[in-house]
Amino acid sequence: MLPVFMELTEVPRFLQLCGTEHIYRIPILKVQEYSLEKIEEKHLNILIPFLPIRFRKQIGEVLTEEKKADTAARENVKRDLAELLSGCQAALGHEGERGVLPESAQKDIREFPWKTCRYLLKKDMDLYEEVSEEVEPAIKLSREIIAELKDDIQELQDDIQELQDSKAALQLQLENACRRMIDEAVKDGKGTEETENMLMSVFSMTKREAEEKVKVYRKE
After folding, report:
1. How far is residue 172 CA from its own chain's centroid?
2. What is the Cα–Cα distance from 105 to 111, expressed in whole angstroms?
3. pLDDT tens digits for 138-152?
4. d(Cα 193, Cα 197) in Å, to the nearest integer?
5. Is 68 exposed, middle or buried (0-12, 13-18, 19+ CB in 10 A)?
6. pLDDT-based confidence at residue 9 (cuts at 50, 70, 90)
7. What residues contact 34, with CB distance under 8 A and at least 6 apart?
8. What is the C-alpha to C-alpha distance for residues 61 and 190, in angstroms, rounded to an integer?
9. pLDDT reading at 187 higher than 60
10. Residues 6 or more apart from 49 whose CB is under 8 A from it?
């Protein structure tokens, strides 16, 4: 029995020391030979993030100085990448419908082809943005969702600030009204308890709140 933590490269030496000879094969998975249809058929969704690499040579050519001005070549790259990314989206959606992938896994896998594209197009982010625009609205990336959430959060913060400002203004008006009522009560010769009862009746204050207002504003 092979040791559990043995490195693959150590296996031949281990077998030699044991006095036995074994022939074994290590299968090679050629990712770029798999079509989206085949990946979907075999549920090999983990391969999807690597698919944009098949356009590495094509992308490398349009990034050279000679090809940068070649509009047709750039359009071909944009079209091919957009078709691939849209196909990845559709394949992941089908896997979700079949119950093979939960929604969280779909979202995670969906991001990785875009990260691969971003890496491949890091020298031409304009082309990356063009690909993004071509695919939208079929795919909404996390960066777009985050941007929308930031806008919503900012709007909510603005609303909160507006409410706080309104609350402060209302509180100031309440204080002024209490002070004026207490001043009038003193002028009319009303006692402390009667003044407190007036505040409780008019402003729906508790006994304690009315006592505090009278304590602050009543000047004999």
Report:
1. 41
2. 10
3. 455 566 667 777 878
4. 6
5. middle
6. low
7. 44, 47
8. 93
9. yes
10. 109, 112, 113, 115, 116
Q: For tokens 């003044």, what's the residue?
A: 195
> How is 97-149 classified by DSSP, letter by letter?
HTTSS-HHHHHHHHHHHHHHHHHHTTT-HHHHHHHHHHHTTS---HHHHHHHH
Handedness of CA 184, 187, 191, 192 (dihedral sign): positive
How many other C-beta atoms lie within 10 A of the C-beta of residue 200? 16
Choose the weakest-confidence range: 2-11, 65-74, 137-146.
2-11
Output the DSSP codes for 35-96: -HHHHHHHT-GGGGGGGGGGGHHHHHHHTSTTTTT-HHHHHHHHHHHHHHHHHHHHHHHHHH
